[in-house]
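Much of our argument rests on the idea that a fold can be written as discrete symbols. In the encoding step, the backbone of a single protein was reduced to a row of integers, each denoting a local shape. This step matters because it turns folding into a mapping between discrete strings. For completeness, the protein is quoted in full, as a sequence line and a line of structure tokens:
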Amino acid sequence: MKPFIYLFLIFIAGTLAAQTLQVKDLSCEHKVNPIGIDVRQPRLSWKLNSDTRNTIQDSYEIRVATKQDFSVQSLVWSSGKVKSSESILQIYKGKATESGKRYYWQVRVWDTNDKESAWSEAAFWEMGILLPTEWKAKWIAPGMPGDTLKASSASLARKEFTINKPIASARVYVTAYGMYELYLNGQRVGQDLLTPGWTSYNSRLQYQVYDVTEQVRQGKNAVGAMIGDGWYRGTIGFDNSWNFYGNQLALLCQLHVRYQDGSQAIVGTDETWKATQDSPVRSSEIYNGEVYDARMEKKGWNVVGFNDKSWHKVRLVTHTFSNLIGSAGVPVRKIQEIKPKNIFRTPEGTLVADMGQNMVGWIRLKVSGSAGTKVVLRHSEILDKKGNFYTANLRQAKQRIEYILKGEGEETFEPHFTFQGFRFVAIEGFPGDIKPENLTGIVIHSDMKPIGTFECSNALVNQLQHNIQWGQKGNFVDVPTDCPQRDERLGWTGDAQVFCRTAGFNMDVAAFFTKWMRDVAADQYSDGGVPFVIPDVLKKVMKGTSAGWGDVALITPYTLYQIYGDKQMLEIQYPSMKAYVEYIHSKAGKSNIWRGGSVFGDWLFYRPGINSHPEPDGYTNNDYIATAFYAYSTHLLKETAHILGKQEDESQYAKLFEQIRETFIKEYVTPAGRIASDSQTAYVLALMFNLLPADLKPMATQHLVDDIKSRRNHLSTGFLGTPYLCHVLSDNGHTEVGYDLLLQEFYPSWLYPVKMGATTIWERWDGMKPDSTFQDEGMNSFNHYAYGAIGDWMYRVVAGIEVGKPGYKHILIQPQLPSDGRLTYAKASVNSPYGEIMSGWEQKNGQLKVTITIPANTTATIRLPRSNASDIKENGQALTAANKSAKMDKDTTVIEVGSGQYVFEYPLK
């Protein structure tokens, strides 16, 4: 072989080898290439891609520059070669970041064999406005002094300005008290909806940042904004209150233009802007919908040259700049579109479109007709027993869209500052014959990346997983709401804490919950109590704290730490966590019993009719519940103190937990392991929160199992007991009973609503009764995710994916199969902070096949159920030859592995 060919082949071989170790999926503060963050020392994360097993990062190097070429002149920080396997949330430690500046960054890594990756592709982050004094724009009120009437029309505001020099870049920073849509030269700015989002406005008001370089031009320009009531001033809360935060809308907009010669200009809201309330949006409210009169459209109102002489000058208003924060959460956006499955007449003659899915968003309407024609769309989740349009469960929410045609050919309309929860749409006044192409369902929710999948051999369970995911979509609309349709749609804390673990399997909720948990702390009462809803819009009519709801202050941040390894979240939330436990401590005192602490009890537990059913109703004593959660939150606070190195607090709360536990046992537990209230939830909480002595756990578990069996394999739990029910069973040797409950098809059960045609999770076990009549219309949502918390058990137990170390740095794969073949296969995946984890199993003809993927830079413990190590083949080889770490634990083979793909096959014992 000629020398140059030999050298060339060596070069190619070396290049291909180097390509097996790659850095990918760079993110900053849980986001990809974020614009407008105000974290001065952002945290950087990356993942590794390797086709070699057992890949572990030994070292890394980060470099950050102000230019994408990473020249010496632009470099602002190099970490140097850092010996560490950490690849998530690494803190930037370079020069102080500056407002509005973009920073590019790359990573390269070395594995434990000293193999070096190439530099990753460049990612970036861009800072927002870091100091209140850097806001040069002024707050303006677009409405007239008298525009404090309920459900008033949206306001329009505009200004023209001139750019005299060639443009290098342009950014706009914008927020509002109310909701806004922003336009530059006639084009909508950004894709975000319902901006600026919902926060505790007095403490935290988000602003958005958009790159508008392509929309601003040299010469004359026009900027315009439409401002509606939104959460700030519209009807909010089921007490039908209005203007909770204020009675006057306001806008703040600041455009930064950087010229090619290095100079810059700022155009901001000030007294030179003009406005009108004579807009086509006659009213727009979250609960009630929108009235839009297309005849009143102001053609060209947001472009240069519009005649605004009849518009009035805006007024300057005084608002602080100190509460402004860069968008910490996930923007609400249009995510997908669906078409009607059927258009029909109900028995009462109502024209109805069935979208086939209980969804959240609105209808895009296409219609042609004469000017003044009024088309009305009404929205509902369900049809009644006779097949008629049903809206009683909406209470006072109208969920009504009224569109008045301008009569200029085909018109297309979507609402602006509202959203609906619905499957069925009643159409009134549509001119001519309506067809599917006239209606398109626009699905909106916070734009969280889907990261998890679950599937098994039972079609009903697969539909249950579908319903869980759609319940999350419909209720994660900037805040985790309880329901998306009636006059409520509030951030109920209890619902959020019971579902947050499941939510983290289905979607990347790190940024979503980071933002919302800051509002939990912001709205926390001065005495440490946590409101029922966050943001707290019920404090005027329903102020208080309830066990299982207020505990969101500890359960959610601790859960998110387990999922994402985000220690900083614990650091930031720690004062709130501690204040809540101290609040309970002050109420319980030396008695260690939190009397009166449970306002809602085990909410919506199954309660059969007294005369129609001989079984007990599952009632759990409220003080029992409160004390159990007091103990659990104290335990979580102790664990958090340990993680954060707060040794004094750790010791203090460890001692307090033991005191509560001793009192709990004395007060509520008999020597036979029977528990006060004798309900399923009572046993579940005691076992889940480790409140029983070891010798009583088997007896208590058996009492729970006996209760379930006495009910012919039915549950009787509510919001607080249900999320833990199957976990307690599987953790204590009764996985089969957990499967009995999961696969139960008759009411009350998870699959009962599925068999009744549900496409989301219901609020009640019997939202629709077996005879197709409805539960209490005053509280009967058909899109309410709390009971969807069973998804957590499906991922963690059925498929067996479990956190071993925070952030999935170490992974546990430990599926628990039903012994009787009720499921023949199950598989799940989750894209963790380190990469995709997959676990799937299939049993056939007495053989089990388990397929597993472990991402690079992690390790895993695999537990293969009902196995004998000597019978197992791994990727076709005898396990003992392929993996020396295998050991037996009763009838389970335990194997320690590194990253890679694994296929295990063996006969079932």
